[in-house]
Design goal:
This protein has four helices and 17 strands. The protein binds manganese (II) ion.
C-alpha cells in the first residue's frame, strides 16, 4: 500500500432506494435551463447550447441534515433542481441513446451565494465562490430510473417554511435530460458517479437561519434541509 501524508478524504455517498449507495465523483450543473428563471435573472436564454459550471463532490450535503449558513454571503439562495445520477460511461452519445447512461434521479438543491455570483458575473470572473462551497449541493436519496417513468409531466416544487417558492413542470426545461447528457458527453466522458444538476425554475430567493426548505419532484424522495 502507498503511504499518504493523511487519509484521503472520504467520497460522499448518496443513499439509493433499495440498493447500495451511490459514490459521488463529479457534479455538473446546467445554467439557465428554464426560460422564466433566466428572465428573473435578467438574462436571455442561449438556445444555441446549454452551459455548465461544476461543484466539488465535497460540496455534497445529504438531504435531511441542517445546512450551516455559509460564510462571506448575505444572500444565500435556494435553487430546486432535478439531479441525474450517471451509472454507465457516456462519451459523445446521441440524445436517442443518452438515457442508457442514467442510473436514476433525485431531488437536489443548488445552493448559491448570489451576492458572490453576481459580483463575479459583473467582473466576468468565474462563479466558483458563488456556487462551489461546502454543503452547497444538497442531494436527496436516488430513485433508480426504471421506477421513475417519463419525466416530462412531473411537477418540480420547492416550499420554504411551507409556502410555495418555486414550481414548474420538468417539461419546462429548455434542454431535456437526453439533450443535456448528449451535449455534456461531447465535453467530458461521463462516468458512473457523476451527478448532473439540471437547472432551476423561476422563484429563486434568499433564505436565512431557521428556514425549512422542502423540494419535491413527482414521487421522488423529497430534498429537505433547515438553514442553521
Ligand atoms: Mn442551478
Amino acid at each position: 500500500m502507498t503511504d499518504t501524508l493523511f487519509p484521503p478524504r472520504a467520497t460522499p455517498v448518496v443513499p439509493v432506494n433499495g440498493q447500495p449507495g451511490f459514490p459521488v465523483a463529479r457534479i455538473f450543473c446546467v445554467g439557465r435551463n428554464y426560460a422564466a428563471h433566466a428572465a428573473e435573472m435578467g438574462q436571455e436564454v442561449d438556445r444555441e447550447a446549454p452551459f455548465y459550471f461544476t461543484k466539488s463532490a465535497h460540496a455534497v450535503l445529504l438531504s435531511g441534515r441542517d445546512m450551516p449558513y455559509p460564510p462571506r454571503t448575505a444572500d444565500l439562495h435556494h435553487e430546486m433542481e432535478l439531479v441525474v445520477a450517471i451509472g454507465a460511461p457516456a462519451g459523445d452519445v446521441s440524445p436517442a441513446s443518452a438515457l442508457d447512461a442514467v442510473f436514476g434521479y433525485a431531488c437536489g438543491l443548488d445552493m448559491t451565494r448570489r451576492d458572490l455570483q453576481a459580483a463575479a458575473k459583473e467582473k466576468r470572473r468565474p462563479w466558483d465562490t458563488g456556487k462551489d462551497f461546502e454543503n452547497a449541493a444538497i442531494i436527496a436519496p436516488i430513485t433508480p430510473k426504471d421506477a421513475v417513468g417519463p419525466l416530462g409531466g412531473l411537477r418540480i416544487q420547492l416550499t420554504v417554511n411551507g409556502l410555495v417558492a418555486q414550481e414548474a413542470r420538468l417539461s419546462d426545461m429548455i434542454w431535456s435530460v437526453p439533450d443535456i447528457i448528449a451535449d455534456l458527453s461531447t465535453l467530458y466522458t461521463l462516468a458512473p458517479g457523476d451527478l448532473i444538476m439540471t437547472g432551476t425554475p423561476a422563484g429563486v430567493g434568499p433564505v436565512g437561519p431557521g428556514d425549512l426548505l422542502e423540494g419535491t419532484i413527482g414521487a421522488l424522495d423529497p430534498v429537505r434541509t433547515r438553514i442553521a
